[in-house]
DNA sequence: ATTGATATGAAAATCATTCCCATCTAGCTT
DNA sequence: AAGCTAGATGGGAATGATTTTCATATCAAT
């Protein structure tokens, strides 16, 4: 058991990018890929524990962090300081519009921002300029729900 | 003692924006205004304590948070999750290029981003869209210093 | 001066995240 | 197939920023 072909992609291949292929990493990865929007490490850990697939919280953190560093996950920061992760199939740099209600994320065309950031980087004299762009709001559904009370 | 006229502006007037005018708030505010770039609450607290103007850490946090909420301070998030504050004289929405070495902040022309963000907000169907844009890098000075080792 | 709403601050509580370290295991090597 | 070891795991303790608690102090209106 445990050789069913995954529906979306092969976690094993992805895991290989960050080191040794272990069961835990595959589990965390699969869970991350199954999530629609952004998730926190703790939430993911809870989900796994609830699903009867216990993985250490530490491992979840390590795996997610490693994946983000490998450029296979996007990271954003909640207003409370929590880090949220999202699996990124492609290697391209992207920005999202995130729903603060449900975590749903919508990739947005960030080309204008990229060029703008590059220009700033070039003209400022600063070295190693990186940028963070986050758009957040209430998606139509959550907005509806919020208005209904 | 403690009735010297501040060099830059009148903290008292600013403080009035967030509630009662107290000595502590004036002190925190004055300290914040005296700082060039962004500062963390703890750093500001240390500075004050060192200066022989002890103010409770709690109060520093409360004051800075209140000020940020009142729109008189900008807030950014460090990679470690720490919040950094910066006094903002005007009420206008601004974005900065921040030096990760020394905290120096350079206001940048963010007009392109604003229009971009507005467009996204309009076309997405999301409500209450807000955006966070952070540019960070090493300022020429810090870069020099970093290279010299 | 009296007074009641606010503000203060030391210590304790939270909370996400990281560290420690004894124990396991993937993936060779023999 | 058994042995080996660098790399991985995970429970619990540690960290570090921020918040809460609550008894005390202070503003500012009366």
In short:
Chains A, B: Belongs to the Fur family. Chain A is an alpha+beta fold.
Could you name the key traits of this structure?
homodimer; 149 residues; Arc Repressor Mutant, subunit A; Dna Ligase, domain 1; 2 domains; 3-stranded antiparallel beta sheet; 3-stranded mixed beta sheet; 6 helices; DNA-binding; FUR (chains A, B); zinc (chains A, B); cytoplasm (chains A, B)
Account of the 3D structure:
Chains A, B: Its main location: cytoplasm. Chains A, B: It is found in: Cytoplasm. Chains A, B: Pfam families: FUR. The structure is a homodimer of 149-residue chains. The first copy, chain A, is of the alpha+beta class and 149 residues long. Chain A has two domains: 1-89, Arc Repressor Mutant, subunit A; 94-149, 2-Layer Sandwich (Dna Ligase, domain 1). In chain A, 42% of the residues lie in helices and 22% in strands. Chain A has six helices and six strands. In chain A, the strands form two sheets. A three-stranded antiparallel β-sheet of chain A has the order 1-3-2. A three-stranded mixed β-sheet of chain A has the order 5-4-6. In chain A, a hairpin with a 5-residue loop joins strand 2 (73-77) and strand 3 (83-87). In chain A, helix 2 packs across helix 4 (57-69) and helix 3 (41-50) crosses helix 4 (57-69). Chain A starts with 10 loop residues before the first helix and ends with a helix. In chain A, 32% of the residues are buried. The model of chain A is unreliable at 1-7 (pLDDT under 50). Strand 6 (127-138) of chain A pairs antiparallel with strand 6 of chain B. The structure holds a DNA duplex (30 and 30 nucleotides).
């Amino acid at each position: 058991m445990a050789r069913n072909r995954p529906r979306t992609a092969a976690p094993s291949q992805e895991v290989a990018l960050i080191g040794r292929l272990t069961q835990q990493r595959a589990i965390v990865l699969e869970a991350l890929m199954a999530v629609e929007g952004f998730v926190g490490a703790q939430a993911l850990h809870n989900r796994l524990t609830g699903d009867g697939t216990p993985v250490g919280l530490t491992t979840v953190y390590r795996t997610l962090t490693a994946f983000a560093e490998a450029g296979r996950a996007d990271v954003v920061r909640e207003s409370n300081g929590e880090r949220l992760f999202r699996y990124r199939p492609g290697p391209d740099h992207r920005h999202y519009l995130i729903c603060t209600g449900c975590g749903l994320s919508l990739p947005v065309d960030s080309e204008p921002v990229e060029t703008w950031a590059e220009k700033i980087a070039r003209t400022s004299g600063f070295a190693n300029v990186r940028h963070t762009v986050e758009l957040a709001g209430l998606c139509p559904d959550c907005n509806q729900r919020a208005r209904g009370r």
